[in-house]
Amino acid sequence: MHTDRNAALELDRQDTLAHLRVSFVLREGLIYLDGNSLGPMQACVRERVHNCLEKEWGQDLIASWNSAGWFLLPQAIGGKIAPLIGAGTYDVVVTDSTSVNLFKVLASAITLRPDRKVIVSERSNFPTDLYIAEGIAEFAERGHTLRLIDSVDELDDAIGDDVAVVMLTHVNYRSGAVHDMKKVTENVHAAGALMVWDLAHSAGALPVDLAAADADFAIGCGYKYLNGGPGAPAFVYVAPRLQKVAVQPLSGWYGHKAPFAFESSYDGAQSIDRFLTGTPPILSLVALDAALDIWNEVSLEDIRSKSKALSTLFIKLVEERCGGFGLTLASPRDAEARGSQASFTHDNAFAIMQALIARDVIGDFRAPDILRFGFTPLYVRFVDVFDAVEHLHDILQSGAWKQEKFNVRGTVT
Amino acid sequence: MHTDRNAALELDRQDTLAHLRVSFVLREGLIYLDGNSLGPMQACVRERVHNCLEKEWGQDLIASWNSAGWFLLPQAIGGKIAPLIGAGTYDVVVTDSTSVNLFKVLASAITLRPDRKVIVSERSNFPTDLYIAEGIAEFAERGHTLRLIDSVDELDDAIGDDVAVVMLTHVNYRSGAVHDMKKVTENVHAAGALMVWDLAHSAGALPVDLAAADADFAIGCGYKYLNGGPGAPAFVYVAPRLQKVAVQPLSGWYGHKAPFAFESSYDGAQSIDRFLTGTPPILSLVALDAALDIWNEVSLEDIRSKSKALSTLFIKLVEERCGGFGLTLASPRDAEARGSQASFTHDNAFAIMQALIARDVIGDFRAPDILRFGFTPLYVRFVDVFDAVEHLHDILQSGAWKQEKFNVRGTVT
Prior knowledge:
alpha/beta
């Protein structure tokens, strides 16, 4: 059945999550399909940061480390993220960047499997994950190598008894393909290895159950589907059964058992706190803290259901309206196998995305040829999907993307 | 000569830096002698963060990585810190925490001296520095040990040809004692080792000249004398002569030669950028960025001159007014040998500091028995010093600190 604009508007009228959009600051006319890169600001975040500046820092100064709860923000925010990823309240902390947290858990994993010298990952993993694994292998100087597979189908062959740890991103950043967390983790454990999940494109995008999957470690970022603001600090999860034995080399004072005893020798906390390192950036932390409150009002099942409906509608409309213009679906067609995004390849993906952005339809380009569109059910409407595809159709039909201004590459993010 | 309150007020009238105080948000009646722990907010910082929220994140969203210069903030802010520490504009970046940056430079140093297995530091160094060194030594598994000296006088004996790196904090966090950076660095180099300076209590407190001292690496924090806000990101310096050879294991995408090429293999920038790891926390970065503009208006020589005058006056008044109450100077008496603070020991230091804080005289307590007072010439007045000592005298004279409420220890920072 053909979907026209009125049908899209009708879907919005029936949407039980539609009321959440007003929580976000989104300018008139903007169609924002890039929440998988940087989630937008909520009004409550602005207020929280303002209060942190005026009251906590401005008036109370150093006392706020206690009185405003700054010191325990890493644990408090971790506790808010925990239910989104199937973790216990005290099994997650927020601190540092995703890359730094990945370093900690990978270092921890190889230390727990000293006789195994291989780290397995996917070639299509987010590059920084592979770079960090390289950095670890090189620095550890214990003969570790990185074994890259082209697809998770090769995993069974890749995990012999030489593998210490398998590191995968749950939802691929380009295609949006979702791994079967439970099954993969089982296979990895059966081979005697440990499992690290990168949840950068999962947390807040779809239900995740780390406990049910018996995952060993997980990390993920705060600025995509969690809307914590640009460069928001990242989270780190360690399975409760590992928290007393897992050590990590970034052993700073914040992870000490008694950080204010100022002992000259490190005695790490026997808990997730051991994965804390230095003083965290409070302004960025309070923004993330406030951004997470919206999750008290929504179920991840409703989020997932609307997410699948949005991306499915998008794919259907693109194929109906933009067929014959050289676009190829780069995401799984099966909504169950897809995260909260839809990607298409095109030889001129960069210029087409620039032309969309000029019309205030914001997705992003990922080298070499991917147009990536994220669908965040907290604020994206079905009519946004409809309008975005109409803009895409106009740009392709008119050849507007061929203008020189859309083909100039700067420092792209 | 006796200094009375009028004499202190006269010193303020003659102070050529006095006009800078209005840049800071300081509530009426507050005597803030804890800028060495958390510098106060400037009005321009509030405005900059507000603009980042409303315009950059709120309106321009992902585009701000380019249009607002977010992506290059680590380098831009590093360039502002550079002249405060005697570094070249392109030799400093701001990112991560002090502890994480210390990990990077120590790892880099031991990699550059593969045949030497000892890391030397002072037992009285800030604990996190020692903890990070322990973490490195343990993880590297190359037989590294940490050799702690009780005083820098023992340094010559401690640095044999087995020492890879010496790591010292330029200004001691408890006593405020200052190391002779040039002389120590020369001795360390003569022994074939590398030198890492922690400038946490130096940057913005007194002139530092890393280039003249030929230092190899330096790190330091943004939230003390640089007033960047709670947990502001830290800086890292690498000598230009080392930037092409120094590698570090936290090899995230932000330090890649071409971060947006999304290559699957790490190829680090041949510059200070290699010491960047993951996406930095932008709200915290813009606060620090704005906080640093004040340094365009002042010379470090004037800062140092007022700093010495403030702490010298404080010590003189404490000894005049509070003699016989059990206070002992824990800082060097020679102002040249002292950073921008003055510390006294007392058996009841904790309770006395609580009683001072209750009177809005904010210093801090450092275990086990130190009362620490920081003097930040940008906003501390001579009359603040006078009034602080009068409060201290009243508390000691009256025994007010003995009240139970001042003796209850919570989570102290």
